[in-house]
């Protein structure tokens, strides 16, 4: 019924392709960089972009979350493909408006984007598709939350049901803290999903989807907590690396077989086909692989590391997905190098990040062999100088022959970045480089049967 792997029968016929990328962050800067390396991509535009993106391509100061504004810009520019980066415009229906204008778009519809916009909806889909995930309960008030917390026990996992930019999850052994987070969500008019805690190392896998076909990218691992040793509050992500030498050999195929393809099939069955990238956040537990969460867009900062290794032209790949032709795409090709991305964040991130500070040393970083800077929360001031404009300001991305070398290069680059009060984690990929990650089961190409 479905094609799990791209066939190498023929490549998608390409003309020169003009692309519009929607979003302001590091993920979008990485996408723009990769698109510019595709010989079939003739022109790239971005909206609204950032200081790094604006040095590469024309940027347009529109509200990227406004479906009509994005559709109008795409039509005016006469683009052949729109790539929607962040989750907010997807949940707002930007992809729907662009499709209605007759322009191919890489990004799910508003209905399909509910896989990320509502964790309760995602759990429902996983249940119907028999996707292995954590046991969970939805709570709408303090009494229901307390009962669910006591059912699952510590460590407690409490998730805001809606979009929270990667920061709506609290994992704690403190029951009072868990209840307080749930109450804050209720006070804001939301609901929460309370889950059992999943042990084991975590893996991020991006899967390209065209509504029927699924094509996996290289697995990565990211680091959510603000401080070393996974301490402190959750963030949008403080760094990532890929590939994962320690991952079980059959991991990617079993995630396609038991997670991504069943989910895409279920969405198609419902009449809401999923087109875009399905981010599978996974835990490799003692009971097998379990889905922690779905996102409906490229993760940040994993994208910065994954795309640094991708050799297959990105524009052709995303256009094939947008047009329902992934089964005709060429086999993916990857660099043999390892990629590491280390995020430099502003002072006081993730609480109330300090902005407006001059950033120096960026040219020196780009001069390092195999190292480049990906801008995230940056902008140009009135003098044309790069200043901080967000919590996660930039990422230093490095390619090395192995994880040890890639880490060394990345941190050499980080040391050259001058931003007052900035912070970064010093342990991105550290445990893996030292061979300290252990997977509590062996992948066999199929995930152990889910226990009721």
TrEMBL record:
Keyword list, A-Z: ATP-binding, Ligase, Nucleotide-binding, Purine biosynthesis
GO molecular function: ATP binding; metal ion binding; phosphoribosylamine-glycine ligase activity
Xref: InterPro entries: ATP-grasp, ATP_grasp_subdomain_1, PreATP-grasp_dom_sf, PRibGlycinamid_synth_ATP-grasp, PRibGlycinamide_synth, PRibGlycinamide_synth_C-dom, PRibGlycinamide_synth_C_sf, PRibGlycinamide_synth_CS
GO BP term, example: 'de novo' IMP biosynthetic process
Catalytic activity as recorded in UniProt: 5-phospho-beta-D-ribosylamine + glycine + ATP = N(1)-(5-phospho-beta-D-ribosyl)glycinamide + ADP + phosphate + H(+)
EC number: 6.3.4.13
Pfam family, one: GARS_A
Signal sequence bounds: none
Biological or metabolic pathway of the protein: Purine metabolism; IMP biosynthesis via de novo pathway; N(1)-(5-phospho-D-ribosyl)glycinamide from 5-phospho-alpha-D-ribose 1-diphosphate: step 2/2
Cofactor(s) in the UniProt record: Mg(2+); Mn(2+)
Domain named ATP-grasp: residues: 123-323
Family, per entry: Belongs to the GARS family.
Full protein name: Phosphoribosylamine--glycine ligase
Underlying gene: purD
């Amino acid at each position: 019924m479905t094609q799990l792997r791209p066939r190498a029968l023929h490549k998608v016929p390409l003309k020169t392709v003009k692309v519009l990328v929607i979003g302001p962050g590091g993920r979008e800067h990485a996408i723009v960089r990769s698109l510019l390396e595709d010989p079939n991509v003739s022109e790239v535009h971005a909206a609204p972009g950032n200081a790094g993106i604006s040095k590469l391509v024309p940027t347009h100061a529109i509200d990227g979350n406004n479906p009509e504004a994005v559709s109008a810009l795409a039509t005016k520019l006469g683009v052949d493909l729109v790539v929607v980066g962040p989750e907010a415009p997807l949940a707002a229906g930007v992809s729907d408006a662009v499709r209605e204008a007759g322009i191919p778009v890489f990004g799910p519809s508003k209905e399909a984007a509910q896989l990320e916009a509502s964790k309760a909806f995602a759990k429902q889909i996983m249940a119907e598709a028999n996707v292995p995930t954590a046991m969970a309960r939805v709570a709408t008030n303090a009494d229901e939350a307390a009962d669910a917390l006591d059912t699952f026990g510590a460590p407690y996992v409490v998730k805001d049901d809606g979009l929270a930019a990667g920061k709506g999850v609290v994992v704690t052994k403190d029951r009072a803290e868990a209840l307080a987070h749930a109450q804050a969500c209720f006070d804001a008019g939301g609901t929460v999903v309370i889950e059992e805690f999943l042990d084991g190392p975590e893996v991020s896998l991006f899967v390209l989807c065209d509504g029927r076909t699924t094509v996996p990218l290289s697995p990565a691992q990211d680091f959510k907590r603000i401080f070393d040793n996974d301490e402190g509050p959750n963030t949008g992500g403080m760094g990532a690396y890929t590939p994962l030498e320690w991952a079980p050999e059959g991991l990617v195929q079993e995630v396609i077989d038991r997670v991504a393809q069943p989910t895409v099939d279920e969405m198609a069955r419902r009449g809401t086909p999923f087109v875009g990238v399905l981010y599978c956040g996974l835990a490799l537990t003692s009971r097998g692989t379990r889905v922690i969460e779905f996102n409906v867009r490229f993760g940040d900062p994993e994208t910065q590391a994954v795309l640094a290794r991708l050799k297959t032209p990105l524009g052709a790949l995303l256009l094939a997905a947008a047009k329902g032709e992934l089964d005709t795409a060429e086999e993916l090709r990857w660099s043999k190098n390892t990629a590491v991305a280390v995020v430099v964040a502003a002072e006081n991130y993730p609480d109330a990040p300090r902005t407006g500070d001059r950033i120096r040393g960026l040219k020196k970083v780009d001069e390092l062999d195999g190292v480049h800077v990906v801008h995230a929360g940056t902008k140009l001031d009135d003098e044309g100088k790069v200043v901080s404009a967000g919590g996660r300001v930039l990422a230093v991305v490095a390619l090395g022959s192995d994880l040890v070398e890639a880490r060394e290069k990345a941190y050499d680059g980080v040391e050259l970045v001058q931003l007052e009060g900035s912070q970064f984690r010093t342990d991105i990929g550290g445990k893996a480089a030292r061979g300290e990650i252990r997977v509590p089961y062996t992948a066999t190409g199929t995930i152990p049967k889910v226990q009721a």
